[in-house]
Amino acid sequence: MTEFVDVVLGGTFHAAVLFLVAAGLQLVFGVQKIVNLACGSFYALGAYFGITAVGVAIKLGMPPLLFFPVLIIAGLAIGLVGLPIERVLRTIYRRDESYQLLITFGFLLMFQDAFRYLWGATPRTMDNVYLAYGTAHILGVRVPTYNLLVIAASLAIAVGLGLFLERTKTGRIVRATAENRDMAEGLGVNASKIFALVFTVGCMLGTVGGALVVPSAASLDMAVELVVESFAVVVIGGLGSMRGALVGALIVGLMRAAAISLMPEMEMLSVYLVVVVVLILRPAGLFGKATA
Fold first, then answer.
1. From CA 46, how far away is CA 50, in angstroms rounded?
2. Per-residue model confidence as pLDDT tens digits over 198-235
3. How far apart are CA 151 and CA 110, in angstroms?
């Protein structure tokens, strides 16, 4: 029972972070129809910038209990890098998908070099963030309280994003633009502003996810690893489905945690097996819409 609870909590923590990245990927594709291979770079950027922000907070003498909100603010702030990147992507919106893949992959490579230049090639951790919040006991399992805060923050962001898209005027305009861009523009919607907003929000989701995972590690490999996992989530949940991003992230997170506990060498293979099964039984994903 203890091992089962440990797997569930560990998998849910990983799923919480993974959901933020996948949600950004789904949001951008749903509205702009761009498959963003640079989503992992935003995640890594948030992690590295979060480390820098916590370092500044320590120098300013801020109490350790404020490190969590510092990381969230840092992730939101650096997510504004999505604005200039979206300006570059405007040139390929109506072009073939191959242009999208090439230019976003180019951003991935550029960010890798930027990380190496600014923060070096050595992985970085911030264990003091974990220690600041102590541990909690759940069904006999000791869990870092920080992990529970990340899960709660991810759920809050998911609910907030859902309410924004469903209940606000801007959210309804975003959904209308996603459904039919030409019709929305004909009704007076400024699609360029909507695209800039959506891409920046998607970028912020990734950078906040990266900032929140900082205590684990920040390394040059994390960008590519998250791209692979994010697309696994998208394949499982269905491209363009926010509900699919949530369910897919939970499946990937729990599968990885179970594999690490039972058979570590099957960690990534277990995820790929689920992807293969979904592609065979439901090619559009669990919540995706089949296309002709």
1. 6
2. 999 999 999 999 999 876 668 888 888 888 888 889 88
3. 31
Task: Name the DSSP class of 151.
Answer: H
Average pLDDT over residues 180-209: 90
Considering only CA atoms, which of 103, 106, 90 is closest in space to residue 195? 90
Sole residue written with tokens 């369910």: 247
Amino acid at 28: V
Report the SS3 class of residue 217.
Answer: coil
Q: Does domain 2-281 have CATH number 1.10.3470?
A: yes
Q: How many CB atoms lie within 10 A of CB 76?
A: 15
pLDDT at res. 285: 84
Query: Which pLDDT band holds residue 1 (cuts at 50, 70, 90)?
Result: low
Give pLDDT, residue 127.
67
Q: At what angle do helices 145-167 and 169-179 cross, to 10 degrees?
A: 80
pTM of the model: 0.90
Q: What is the tens place of the pLDDT at every residue in 97-137?
A: 788 888 998 999 999 999 999 988 888 877 667 777 888 88
Rounded distance, CA 145 to CA 131, Å? 9
d(CA 22, CA 263): 26
- Token readout for 79 is 């997510």
H or E segment at 250?
helix 242-262
Q: Where are the alpha helices (DSSP H) in 79-144?
A: 82-89, 97-119, 127-133
Q: Per DSSP, which regions of the chain are E strands?
A: 135-138, 141-144
Q: What is the rounded distance in angstroms from the CA atom of residue 225 to the CA atom of residue 108?
A: 12
How is the chain split into domains, by residue range?
2-281
Of 129, 128, 121, the C-alpha closest to 219 is 121
Residue found under tokens 């930027």: 114
